[in-house]
Specification:
With 210 residues, the protein is mainly α. The protein has nine helices and no strands. The radius of gyration is 25 Å and the shape is globular. The mean pLDDT is 82.
């Protein structure tokens, strides 16, 4: 379906969002992801997007342009972080006896942790989300727990943070795209000047023989 050129583009994108993305991100609000995980998820998402809009690797399409062509406003990373922060706010508004709140935000009453420390936990990733969304002040002293008590205030802060992250992403991608273009131009220039130098060298050698 996604590779059919005659299929409606908007239909393919809606199917991608409803089937692939939602399946890919099922339960993501409770995940503890690393930078490597985000890279893989973003790469998979972009592969499907480029298939939907009919672009190939040979066209060297830039990421922001492919997102714009597909009408996609957020990367997978921004979506996961936003859902996790919204879910954290929902947990904070629960009663203390609720199991989800005890599991995600509570502390262990006993037991022994892994040697060397746990690789990652949900609360630490939540702190990374706050920093990524330019909400580091909410992280200090657990201020976010107070802000999350008001659902409207918390949701607006998360939305603003997601928009800030996407603006930063667009700037970084624009810089990376310009850098790649300069590298391609330099490569093309060196390939074009290479045969000229070779012909000039052959002519000089031929002149000596005469």
């Amino acid at each position: 379906m996604y590779d059919r050129r005659r299929a409606n583009r908007q239909l393919k994108i809606r199917l991608l969002q409803a089937e692939v993305v939602e399946t890919l991100l099922y339960g993501c609000a409770s995940w503890s992801l690393t930078a490597e995980h985000y890279t893989k998820l973003n790469g998979t998402h972009r592969q499907f997007l480029t298939r939907c809009i009919g672009w190939s690797k040979r066209k060297r399409s830039d990421r922001p342009l492919s997102y714009a062509q597909a009408g996609c406003e957020e990367t997978i990373e921004a979506t996961v972080r936003k859902r996790r922060l919204c879910f954290a706010g929902f947990n904070m508004r629960m009663e203390d006896t609720r199991l989800p709140k005890r599991m995600l935000l509570g502390a262990m009453a006993g037991g022994v942790g892994y040697r060397g420390g746990q690789e990652s936990d949900w609360v630490s990733r939540l702190g990374e989300d706050l920093v990524a969304f330019n909400m580091g002040d909410e992280k200090e002293g657990g201020k976010w727990k107070v802000s999350a008590k008001d659902p409207e205030v918390w949701y607006n802060k998360v939305e603003d943070g997601a928009a800030w992250l996407m603006r930063k992403w667009h700037r970084q991608e624009a810089e990376a795209s310009a850098k790649r273009q300069r590298a391609r131009d330099a490569e093309a220039e060196s390939m074009a000047s290479g045969p000229k130098r070779k012909r000039a060298g052959e002519a000089a050698v031929g002149g000596k023989k005469r």
